[in-house]
Design goal:
The complex is a heterodimer. By secondary structure, chain A is an alpha+beta fold. Chain A is built from six helices and 17 strands. In chain A, the strands form five sheets. Chain A has a seven-stranded antiparallel beta sheet with strand order 8-9-10-15-14-13-12, covered by helices on one side. A four-stranded mixed beta sheet of chain A has the order 1-6-11-17, with no helix packed on it. The longest helix of chain A is centred in the first third of the chain and has 21 residues, at 50-70. By secondary structure, chain B is mostly helical. The chains are: A alpha+beta, B mainly alpha. Chains A and B meet through helix 1, helix 2 and strand 3 of A and helix 1, helix 2, helix 3, helix 4 and helix 5 of B.
C-alpha cells in the first residue's frame, strides 16, 4: 500500500517539473513560466489571461447590475430558449481547420474549404442569448459504472467535474457528460449532432430545465490505427438546457437507454462558479456533441 | 517526415482526423514508449499501454486542449502504465521502475497521514514544494528517476555525466526529501 501511495504521490507532482525534466535543459529554455501556471484556472483546467479574468469580473458586475435593474420578479420569469432544427439541405458549418500532409510540398498543409466545414449535419441547436453564462461544475449522484480510462475526465481538486467520460479501455462508452454554454454559440455558433441520425425526439421541462431526449444511430468507417472495423453505433442523448442560467448538460451513452441517462442527469449536483463564459471569446463556434467514440 | 507543432496536432484531434494519432505518435511516440517501458517489463504490455495512451488522447481532445502536449501525453502513459503495473503479479515485477520505487521506499517507509486520494495529492504538493527548493540538476535527476522511471545510466547519458555521480546525487536528494517530509509531518 505504501508503495502505491508513493507511486501516486510522485505521479501527481507539479506539471512544470514534469515538463522541465522532459529533456535536459539547464538553461531553462524548455520550461513554462511560473506566471503561466499561476493563472491556471482551477475549475476549467485552462489558462486564463489576466485581462480576460478582469473582463470576466466586469461581466459578473454587469450581470449583477442588470439583475438589480430588472427587478427580481421580472428576471425570474424570463426564460432563455434552445432552438432545435434539422440542418438545411447543403448547409455547411465552419469547422476547426483540418490538415493533411502534402507529399509533393513535403509539408503539412491546412485545408480551407470544403474540408474546413462540417457537412451532412443531422441536428442544429441555436441560441440567441445570453452574452455571458456563469461556468458550472458538477458531481454525479449516480452513474452506472465508475470511469476507467485514466485522464479521460476533467476533475478539480475538490472533486467537481466539468467533463466526465465513462469510457472503458474496450472502447465502450456507457455515458459521457459534457457541459456547454449558450453564450458560446450566440455569435453564429451552433451545437451540432453531426454523424448520428436521431430517431423520435421528445421534449419536456423538468424544473428550470428544457429537456431534449432521443436515440440515434451512426455508421462509422472505423479507425484503422486502432484496428476498429466499420460498424454501426447506437447512442442515446439526454440534453438538459437550463432556461435561466444558459448552461447545457449533454449526457449521451453508447447502447445506453434514455432512462439510464435521465437518472444520471437528474442526480447531478450542480455548483455555479464565478467564472464567466463570454460570447466575446467565441465566434462561429460549432461543436459536435456526438461523443468522442464511434 | 515533418513534425507538427502541438497546436496543429490538437487541431487534428478537434477535426477528428486519424492523422492526429499519426502525428502524435511521430512526435511523442518515443517519449510515450519510454515512459511505459520504464515501468512495464513486458513488451506486449508496453505496446498496449502506448496504444491506450493514444486512445486516451483521442477520447479527451476535445474537450481538452492540453498545453504542453508532451506533459499531458506522458501523464496518461504513466497513469496507464502504473495501473497495469499494480495490476500485475509480483512475479512480473522487475522493471527499472521497481528498483526506483525500492529506493524511495527505503527513505519513505511509513506514511503516517496518507489514507486517501486527497492526502496523496497533498503529499504530492509537498514533494513539489521540496523539488522547487533544490537545484535544477538535482530536480531533473529526481523527476527522471522517479516520475519517468529512467535508469541511472539513462540519466547520466542524457546529462553527459557519470552514473556514479548521478547515484550519489540521487541518494543525497532522497535523504533531503526524507528530512523534509519528517519536518512537514508526513513521516512517522
Amino acid at each position: 500500500m505504501n508503495r502505491e501511495l508513493i507511486s501516486k504521490a510522485i505521479g501527481d507532482i507539479d506539471d512544470r517539473q514534469i515538463l522541465e525534466a522532459s529533456r535536459y535543459d539547464p538553461k531553462g529554455i524548455y520550461s513554462i513560466s511560473p506566471e503561466r501556471i499561476a493563472m491556471k484556472d482551477e475549475h476549467t483546467n485552462s489558462f486564463i489571461h489576466p485581462q480576460r479574468r478582469f473582463r470576466r469580473a466586469l461581466s459578473i458586475a454587469a450581470v449583477v447590475c442588470l439583475i438589480l435593474a430588472l427587478g427580481i420578479t421580472g428576471f425570474a420569469v424570463y426564460q432563455l430558449s434552445m432552438n432545435r432544427r434539422e440542418a438545411k439541405p447543403a448547409e455547411v458549418f465552419q469547422a476547426l481547420p483540418s490538415i493533411h500532409y502534402d507529399d509533393e510540398a513535403g509539408a503539412w498543409v491546412w485545408d480551407t474549404s470544403p474540408n474546413g466545414t462540417l457537412e451532412n449535419v443531422k441536428l442544429v441547436f441555436d441560441f440567441d442569448e445570453p452574452e455571458d453564462c456563469n461556468a458550472i461544475r458538477f458531481k454525479p449522484g449516480w452513474i452506472p459504472s465508475e470511469p476507467t480510462v485514466v485522464g479521460a475526465t476533467l476533475q478539480d481538486e475538490e472533486g467537481w467535474y466539468t467533463y466526465l467520460d465513462g469510457a472503458t479501455l474496450d472502447y465502450d462508452q456507457p455515458y459521457l457528460i459534457s457541459v456547454y454554454y449558450a453564450s458560446q454559440f450566440v455569435n453564429d455558433g451552433h451545437m451540432l449532432l453531426l454523424n448520428y441520425t436521431p430517431g423520435e425526439i421528445t421534449e419536456e421541462t423538468w424544473g428550470d430545465y428544457q429537456i431534449t431526449k432521443f436515440d440515434a444511430v451512426s455508421y462509422t468507417p472505423g479507425i484503422s490505427f486502432f484496428g476498429i472495423e466499420p460498424h454501426t453505433v447506437e447512442r442515446s442523448y439526454y440534453i438538459m438546457f437550463h432556461q435561466t442560467l444558459g448552461y447545457i448538460i449533454v449526457i449521451s451513452g453508447v447502447d445506453a437507454d434514455i432512462a439510464t441517462l435521465e437518472r444520471i442527469g437528474k442526480n447531478l449536483e450542480i455548483d455555479m462558479t464565478d467564472d464567466v463564459i463570454s460570447s466575446a471569446d467565441y465566434h462561429e463556434y460549432n461543436v459536435p456533441i456526438d461523443g468522442a467514440l464511434g | 517526415m515533418a513534425r507538427l507543432e502541438d497546436s496543429k496536432i490538437i487541431g487534428l484531434f478537434y477535426a477528428r482526423s486519424e492523422q492526429a494519432i499519426d502525428a502524435l505518435a511521430k512526435k511523442y511516440g518515443a517519449a510515450v514508449r519510454k515512459v511505459a517501458s520504464n515501468i512495464l517489463r513486458s513488451p506486449l504490455d508496453v505496446e498496449e499501454c502506448v496504444n491506450d495512451t493514444y486512445m486516451g488522447c483521442w477520447d479527451t481532445i476535445p474537450p481538452q486542449s492540453p498545453a504542453p502536449l508532451i506533459t499531458y501525453v506522458c501523464k496518461i502513459a504513466r497513469n496507464l502504465a502504473i495501473k497495469k503495473y499494480h495490476g500485475n503479479t509480483a512475479a512480473k515485477r522487475n522493471s527499472s521502475y521497481d528498483v526506483a520505487l525500492d529506493e524511495l521506499e527505503e527513505y519513505i517507509p511509513a506514511l503516517g497521514n496518507v489514507e486517501g486520494d486527497y492526502e496523496a495529492k497533498e503529499l504530492s504538493a509537498s514533494i513539489s514544494a521540496f523539488l522547487n527548493g533544490i537545484s535544477y540538476d538535482n530536480r531533473f535527476m529526481f523527476v527522471r528517476r522517479y516520475w519517468y522511471g529512467d535508469t541511472v545510466s539513462d540519466i547520466a547519458a542524457s546529462m553527459g555525466i557519470g552514473s556514479h555521480y548521478v547515484s550519489v546525487r540521487l541518494s543525497r536528494t532522497r535523504k533531503k526529501l526524507q528530512s523534509y517530509l519528517i519536518k512537514e509531518g508526513w513521516l512517522i
